[in-house]
Amino acid sequence: MKILIVEDNPSDLEGLLRHVRWQQLGYEVAAVARDGAQGLAEALRARPEVLLSDIALPVFDGLTMARRIRAHLPELQVIFMSCHDDFRYAQQAIELSAHHYILKPIDLAELEEELRSIAQACRQRERERVHRRLFEENLPLIRQQTLAAVLYGRSPLNGRVRQLLGVPEVY
């Protein structure tokens, strides 16, 4: 899974890149950015599944950036980081359907657990999408086989269904 990291503090960014076990968690750091405008541009270019972003950023904040990215990538999963324990930020993150809101300094175990959770949910959504597509592709065949089973199978409804449809019994 691709992740975009947006963090304006160089030491925080370096710590995330160095200490989170990205590959082990199944992530590829697709891009990094240091402000909201650059984050938006990188998101549109890299098309990540996950955004890990500070809230307080230069140019425009992480909340604004996430809103703009979501206009193009509606299934984007978002984790916000902040050194501000401000309910207004948390409330706005909830309104954006952020997956999680982590206070700095970052607890790596907590972040990695959230990343695992997101990866698992994304894999589940992808499996459901594949099953739905296969079902839709095979729906005409399913309908045909179901009708044949009802009309010519051993269902107790066979006689009544054939009678209603005017289909003679076949022996």
Provide the gyration radius in Å: 25 Å
Shape call = elongated
What portion of the residues fall into strands of 2 or more residues? 15-25%
What is the rounded distance between the termini? 57 Å
Fraction of residues in helix = 55-70%
Question: How many beta-strand runs?
Answer: 5
Total helices: the number is 7
Pick out the low-confidence regions. Answer: none
One letter per element, helices H and strands E, the order comes to EHHEHEHEHEHH
Briefly characterize the structure.
The protein has 171 residues and is an alpha/beta fold.
Descriptive notes:
With 171 residues, the chain is of the alpha/beta class. The chain contains seven helices and five strands. The chain has a five-stranded parallel β-sheet, sandwiched between helices. Strand 3 (50-54), helix 4 and strand 4 form a beta-alpha-beta unit. Helix 3 (36-46) packs parallel to helix 4 (62-72) and helix 6 (108-152) crosses helix 7. The chain is elongated, with a radius of gyration of 25 Å. The chain starts with a strand and ends in a 6-residue tail after the last helix. The model has no long low-confidence stretch (mean pLDDT 88).
Could you list some keywords that capture this structure?
7 helices, alpha/beta, elongated, 5-stranded parallel sheet, 171 residues
Topology:
Elements (H helix, E strand, L loop, with lengths): L1 E5 L3 H10 L2 H4 L2 E6 L2 H11 L3 E5 L7 H11 L4 E6 L4 H9 L4 E4 L4 H45 L5 H8 L6
Parallel strand pairs: 1-2, 1-3, 3-4, 4-5
Helix pairs in contact: 3-4, 6-7
